[in-house]
Amino acid sequence: KDLVPHLRKRMEVKGTGSCPLIVDVLSVKEHARNVLLEHLPEECGILCTHPMFGPDSAKHGWQGQTFVYERTRIDNVLLNPSKDQSFHHRLSQSGDSDNEDEFLDEKGTLHNVHENSEAHIEGMDRVERVFEVRRAPKLRLGQTCCLTCFPPRSISIWEEEGCNMVSMSCKEHDAFTANSQFITHLMGRILGQQGLTPTPIDTKGFQNVLKLVETTNADSFDLFYGLYKFNRNSLEIIYKLKEAFDDVVGKLLEKEGNSNADLQKTLSSKI
Fold first, then answer.
1. Which end of the chain lies in a sparser environment, N or C, as judged by fewer CB atoms within 10 Å?
2. pTM for the complete prediction?
3. Burial level of 69, CB count in 10 A (0-12/13-18/19+)?
């Protein structure tokens, strides 16, 4: 919101074509996408991204690290966010068109990349330059940046750095990360609450558990809370985890002819 007045002032002085491409690198994508679409001027292009790595996992380089992105809006056109029809979608794949310069927007409207004279082409080029400029400054996860905020050659070629580039809708991204990133942080926090410590006879498996606790608890609780609050899939993951826990414990008790109710009585008597 703080950025919007500056963008509008910029457009008043330099014209609507001066609105920069806005790139976000938040860990939760659908919420960020909605906020950017709600508050940014329609003239601003939007690229939603998530580097699926951090300082610890990428301390030896970005080679092989996954970088997820959605081309969201270019030249006032809200692009179709689905994985198979994301920006400059090759309609020839579906048999609807042989023209590689055509794509569908979110409403299913057919567009040509050359429409609106040079504005559309320039907008697309601006997005592509995100992947074509050399060596980036170090961005913290959760930052939002705009291309014009940095000098030339200041945003990296993630692809050239060896990242695995994945085009994916924000909605699909959040569904996947709830089942991977959020549940990893959730388990690390839960196990961390138990106060686990190394023993003289640790197995490799337990050492991995301690590493999980260490890495997830090294992040701030605010980050963990953000993964929960702003991803609508997170609460379902918690419910499923609780159901799975009760199911596994129930099977253990069933072997001894007991039930969860018996377990609750036993635990209550020990408190």
1. C
2. 0.74
3. buried
Q: Is 195 left (phi over 0), alpha (psi -120 to 50) or beta?
A: left
Positive or negative: CA dihedral 68, 219, 229, 1: negative
CA geometry: angle 244, 193, 201, nearest 5 deg: 90
- Structure-block tokens of residue 265: 């009585």
Instruction: Decide: residue 173, CB within 10 A, 0-12 exposed, 13-18 middle, 19+ buried.
Output: buried
Q: What is the pLDDT of residues 197-233, one digit of tens each?
A: 999 999 999 999 999 999 999 999 999 999 999 999 9
Answer whether 27's CB lies under 8 Å from 177's CB.
yes
User: Quick one: tokens of 231?
Assistant: 């991803």
Q: Give the relative orientation of helices 204-218 and 183-193 as an angle to the nearest 10 degrees.
A: 100
Residues in the chain: 271
